[in-house]
Specification:
single chain; alpha/beta; Rossmann fold; five-stranded parallel sheet; 15 strands; 44% helix; 15% strand; binds pyridoxal-5'-phosphate
Length: 462
């Protein structure tokens, strides 16, 4: 299995190399040269299988020679051992034909743990084998950073630097990043918004001298291995509701388009997904693009669902690659246009996108109202991101096709917003109940590439 860049001008890599690299050297994102297919009978056979075993069968065809089967099975077992629910990703019925896929039973209470715990184990195995070291640099709107720090803390061969927008993450998110005591993890509060954090990370990857000097590796959702890990729960959820014998739809609270793109991969592998509904908050560039075919970022407005406060949605590039018939030159050109304000999606590509994706938007009042209503009518406390999903999903329910909304975080990760909307305080799970007593280590950084690079050179154990 070989991996190619969406922009067509980077080295072709193995799974392991693509995982360790993150962003391609031409600025593009890695994708498998072909997407493996699972046959109807193979999908049907996933029914009733433990999550780990399903994960192995679904991901194995993407790995090529990168990990032996036995090694990969151990990696998966270790990755999900810390999850607090035996099903890992349990489904819960919310209403008539509407289900919640709970993805928040991992160590940092958001779906990011599914991918990050797995790639933590894969990095560890790979680096031990090669004797290499890497310096992981990531940008976060809150959840990726805490998941990455949790997954990589204390590993010998890895230093982790996470840029988050100062003052724009929830206190629980911040504390999950600033309280780990291991000296290889560094949470950096950047003066700017998430798009600034992400832009500086991309700048570092495009600074080849720096990139090679510190051994930069990326674990943002642009990392293919993360997308792959997220493909698994689309299969397990769909199969438990009757796939492949019937179709199901998913609604996905979306920011960087990684999670919903994993659903698209599942569909291309053969899972009978009817609709993939992209749910955005008031930062609705993806909803606008899917409805008007214009992709024009216009500044982030902070919301109560901060992990979706994004205007430059990196993984959308992967969807564009397929919508343009795998034409890397067309994608490279769009990404050039993006540097000067935005681009128009061609009519053919817009139609291709609409074959798989629907979209909707949920503003702040609607988010709060959804949290309040679901608390009253079902007793279910939703995190604000999940509430965005539920609101948009309700607009897309179709009789006879189950709708599965991804519950992307635990409500206790956003206690203030949830309590303000519902009047109920969501308690932290027991494993994290002392989070507010732990002491924090914070570093403020200016939104300045040179200053950030200097700090990383000083602190990384190169
Ligand atoms: C990251 C995140 C999202 C958005 O996921 P993307 O893959 O970036 O689209 C939604 N909800 C929560 C809670 C998140 O942490």
């Amino acid at each position: 299995m070989r991996y190619i860049s969406t922009r067509g001008r980077a080295p072709v890599l193995s799974f392991e190399e693509a995982m360790l690299t993150g962003l391609a050297r031409d600025g593009g994102l890695y994708l498998p040269e072909q997407i493996p297919q699972l046959r109807h009978a193979e999908i049907a056979a996933l029914e009733g299988v433990p999550y780990e075993a399903a994960a192995f069968r679904i991901m194995r065809p993407f790995l090529g020679e990168s990990f032996d089967e036995g090694v990969f099975q151990e990696i998966i077992a270790r990755a999900y051992a810390g999850f607090k629910h035996p099903a890992r990703a349990p489904l819960k019925q919310l209403g008539d034909g509407h289900f919640l896929l709970e993805l928040f039973h991992g160590p940092t209470l958001a779906f990011k743990d599914f991918a990050m715990q797995l790639i933590g184990q894969m990095f560890e195995t790979s680096l031990k084998r090669s004797g290499r070291r890497v310096c992981i640099v990531g940008a976060t709107s809150g959840d990726t950073g805490s998941a990455a720090i949790e997954a990589f803390r204390g590993l010998d061969a890895v230093d982790v630097f996470i840029l988050y927008p100062h003052g724009r993450v929830s206190e629980v998110q911040r504390r999950q990043m600033t309280t780990p005591v291991e000296s290889n993890v560094h949470a950096l509060a950047l003066d700017g918004d998430f798009d600034d954090c992400q832009a500086r990370v991309k700048d570092m990857f495009n600074d080849f001298e720096f990139r090679d000097a510190v051994g930069l590796a990326g674990v943002n959702s642009i990392n293919w291995a993360r997308v792959l890990a997220q493909v698994v729960y689309y299969f397990t959820a769909a199969v438990s509701l009757g796939a492949p014998h019937r179709k199901v739809s998913f609604t996905v609270p979306t920011g960087n388009f990684g999670d919903v793109f994993a659903g698209y991969v599942a569909k291309r592998m053969g899972l009978p997904i009817d609709r993939l509904v992209v749910a955005t908050n008031q930062n609705d560039i993806l909803h606008r693009c899917l409805t008007t075919a214009q992709y024009r970022p216009d500044g982030v407005i902070p919301s109560i669902s901060p992990s979706m406060d994004i205007q430059v949605s990196s993984n959308f590039e992967r969807a564009l690659f397929y919508a343009y018939g795998e034409d890397a030159r067309a994608v490279a050109q769009l990404m050039d246009e993006l540097k000067t304000g935005g681009f128009a999606v061609s009519q053919g590509a817009a139609e291709a996108l609409r074959e798989s994706f629907d979209s909707g938007r949920c503003d702040e009042d609607q988010t709060r109202a959804t949290i309040a209503r679901l608390s009253e009518t079902t007793g279910e406390l939703l995190c604000p991101h999940t509430a965005v999903g539920v609101h948009v999903a309700e607009e897309h329910l179709v009789q006879g096709t189950p709708m599965i909304t991804l519950a992307t975080a635990h409500p206790a990760k956003f206690p203030d917003a949830v309590e303000a909307a519902s009047g109920r305080h969501p308690p932290l799970p027991p494993a994290m109940s002392d989070l507010y007593e732990r002491s924090e280590r914070q570093h403020r950084v200016r939104n300045d590439l040179g200053a950030i690079e200097e700090l990383i050179r000083e602190r990384a154990r190169i």
